[in-house]
Amino acid sequence: MNQNFDNCMTMPLAHEGGFADHPSDPGCMTNLGVTKADRDEFYGGNATEEVMKVPTKRDVETIYRRNYLNRFRIQQG
Question: Which residues contact 4 (CB under 8 A, 6 or more apart)?
């Protein structure tokens, strides 16, 4: 599953785009598909706009892995 996870990550990274903070978006600030709330919960902080604008691919993959792959006990292997 790890190889599949890596392959699957290309989709949200390609389609989620970059930073967005649209007033009508209930997710508020997002970047590469990760909301500010998800990032804050994962890192235990209160991310500023500047922090939200510069996530690394590794940051995003780590959050996706924990919040989706592990949380839903998707089979690895």
Answer: none
3-state SS string over 47-64? CCHHHHCCCCHHHHHHHH
Q: Note the pLDDT of residue 74.
A: 57
Six token digits for residue 77: 């292997």
Residue 17: inside a domain: no
Q: What are the two backbone dihedrals, phi and then psi, of residue 44, each rounded to the nearest 5 degrees?
A: 65, 40
Q: Kindly report whether the global pTM for this prediction surpasses the value 0.85.
A: no
CB-based contacts of 62, cutoff 8 Å, min separation 6: 42
The reply to whether 72 falls in a domain is: yes
Q: How many domains does the chain have?
A: 1
Mean pLDDT of the chain: 82
